[in-house]
Design a protein that fits this description.
The protein has helices at residues 14-23, 77-85, 88-98, 141-157, 162-165, 180-191, 197-207, 210-219, 259-269, 272-275, 279-292, 300-321, 330-349, and strands at residues 32-40, 49-57, 67-72, 110-114, 121-125, 131-132, 223-225, 234-236, 245-247, 254-256. The chain is an alpha+beta fold and 357 residues long.
């Protein structure tokens, strides 16, 4: 009998997990039983639903995990469509299969994946022993510095080189700026009250320069860019170890300017009170790791320029995705408010529009 791949959390069954772990070569003879299922990150994940399943088995088997994390398509029809438009699940699956083993940072182990529509899914290592981030609360400066150091190690490995060229399946853009002008009015109507006057002026000016911004970014040196690098996609371990920060959720990974990720983590997640006046110090931390990891022919002045480009491109994300949050409540709305407040003020603070023609 063919196993039905889950489309909803309640459809994640012990039978399916047993099938997934056997297909992935994780177990061979034992049969899994689900002790408990827990939906993780309520209101945090945009493009997936994430479930942690605690397991036991009918017999002892070496290597059988006591729990797994399962990612499936999101419940929201709007966010489901966004994910399909961006090939989000296919991209993340290929990242874990083709990239993860080649980078010098800690990433979760992929056990199994379903790559056939409409029921995309991923079964992976449970890392819930680490401390999850909370973007609504916001990050402290030390956490941000540790994150950009980890990020730079990965990005240096794929910096404008043949290794990057070999992953042509990874796009060079998510194209979220394509409807910026079309959606700007709606964004201002529904979320403009969370952006100050100077931020709205930056957003208005950017709308006239989207084609230029995309062309300018396309000219710049490329590497792997997470693009959704925010605190909700981070786990924190021992700050004095190589596992101080774990970066999750690579559904939107692209080949583009590495400094975008720095702009995103600072602008979207760092507490503004700790961010103010220190953004270039964080950027310098990222840049110094790149240089230490043998990135050449990339000057500090170029990094600052790309950082400003990234801060402007970041503004396209809340404008593009805001329609999925109109009328939302609880944590989803609090997250939308926090993002809007932070990213526009961050762009103002670093004078990001100074790079515009």
């Amino acid at each position: 009998m063919k196993i039905k791949n889950p489309l909803h959390p309640q459809e994640i069954t012990a039978e399916w997990i047993t099938f997934a772990l056997r297909a992935g070569g994780i177990i061979n003879q034992s049969v899994a039983r689900i002790l408990n299922k827990e939906i993780l990150g309520g209101g945090r994940g945009f493009l997936s639903s994430v479930v942690r399943a605690s397991l036991d088995y009918d017999r002892e088997e070496k290597g059988a995990p006591k729990s797994v994390v399962v990612k499936i398509e999101p419940e929201s029809d709007t966010l489901h469509r966004f994910g399909d438009e961006l090939n989000a699940f296919q991209r993340e699956i290929r990242f874990y299969k083709e990239v993860a083993s080649n980078v010098p940072i800690r990433l979760p182990i992929l056990y199994f994946s379903v790559e056939d529509p409409p029921a995309y899914s991923i079964v992976m290592e449970d890392l819930s022993s680490y401390t999850p981030g909370d973007q609504v609360i916001g990050m402290h400066r030390g956490q941000v510095m540790a994150t950009v150091e980890t990020l730079a190690k990965l990005q240096a490995k794929y910096w404008n080189n043949t290794a990057l060229e070999q992953i042509k399946w990874m796009p060079t853009t998510n194209g979220v700026g394509i409807d910026y002008q079309e959606k700007w009015g709606s964004f201002v109507e529904h979320f403009g009250s969370f952006v100050d006057k100077k931020g709205l002026e930056v957003g208005e000016r950017l709308g006239m320069s989207i084609p230029w911004l995309e062309e300018e970014i396309e000219k710049r040196p490329k590497t792997i860019v997470h693009t959704d690098l925010r605190e909700d996609n981070l786990l924190f371990g021992d700050p004095n170890s190589d596992e101080a920060v774990l970066i999750l959720d690579w559904q939107l990974a692209v080949r583009s300017i590495g400094a975008f990720d720095v702009a995103r983590i600072i602008g979207g997640s760092e507490l503004p009170s700790e961010r103010s006046g220190h953004q270039l110090e964080v950027l310098r931390c990222w840049y110094d790791v790149l240089v230490r990891e043998a990135v050449r022919d990339y000057s500090w002045e170029e990094a600052v320029h790309d950082f400003r480009l990234g801060a402007l491109q970041l503004l396209c994300f809340p404008v593009h995705f805001h329609v999925g949050f109109i009328g939302s409540e609880g944590r989803s709305m609090e997250l939308a408010k926090a993002i809007c407040r932070r990213v526009f003020s961050s762009a103002v603070e670093i004078d990001a529009t100074s790079v515009l023609p």
